[in-house]
Amino acid sequence: MSLADHTTRSFADALDDVSVGVLPVGSTEQHGPHLPLSTDHLVADRIAGALDNPNATVLPTLAVGVSDHHRQFHGTLSVSDETFERFVRETVESLAGHGVRKVAVVNGHGGNKPALERAARTLRAEETAFCAPWHWWDAANYVIGHADQHETSMVQHLAPALVDEERLVEAEQDGTESWGKRVHGASIGFDTADFTESGAVGHPAEGSAMLGEDMFEESVAELDAFVDWLADRPFEDLLAEPHR
Ligand SMILES: [Zn+2]
């Protein structure tokens, strides 16, 4: 159940069963001419929201992430790496204060990864919480681009009214095959606008609601299994072992 839907008293009672926090995070950023700016937080929010696991409490979704590299595209919002890392770390610290010290961060946006990894390392080093980044595309074993067939399929499944189907071909034609731009061994694709006109990377026109449904179900099942894995382990067992 969602933490925010509890009263403070009913949450205190729920703590008899709940040992894992689930924190959905994403971004609000361009996803080509065909997908909503909400794509990354929408997907994370829905995956976490679909969990039906008595060990877990789902925290409110963080809808703005690290997206400075998309800023040339209208509507993109962003915070710095440091701000995002700190927001996640302090949110998890406050949850740990109620005794929930194992957390899965359900992430919908690649740009959040470095900050999430640093937050996780600090929280464990300080023995505050074990806070594992969980990226839906890794859980479902997909190598994703950006606003590509995988992300497009997810939104076609979860929120079809938000997909501009008439712009799929344009998204693909004015997009690019792979992330980044290289010249004589140098990586010079600092911003997505450097290498994709439409904002898409991959093959959005190959998306389908059916693929989206499969990926979504797979992701929810993997998250559910990971929550059980966390719930089964005492917090102390998840801390780093001293090596001698
Ligand atoms: Zn995305």
TrEMBL record:
Transmembrane segments: none annotated. Its cofactor is Zn(2+). Keywords: Hydrolase, Metal-binding, Zinc. GO terms for biological process: riboflavin biosynthetic process. GO terms for molecular function: hydrolase activity, acting on carbon-nitrogen (but not peptide) bonds, in linear amides; metal ion binding. The keyword Metal-binding applies. It holds the Pfam family Creatininase. PANTHER family: 2-AMINO-5-FORMYLAMINO-6-RIBOSYLAMINOPYRIMIDIN-4(3H)-ONE 5'-MONOPHOSPHATE DEFORMYLASE, 3-DEHYDRO-SCYLLO-INOSOSE HYDROLASE. This is Creatininase family protein. It comes from Halomarina oriensis.
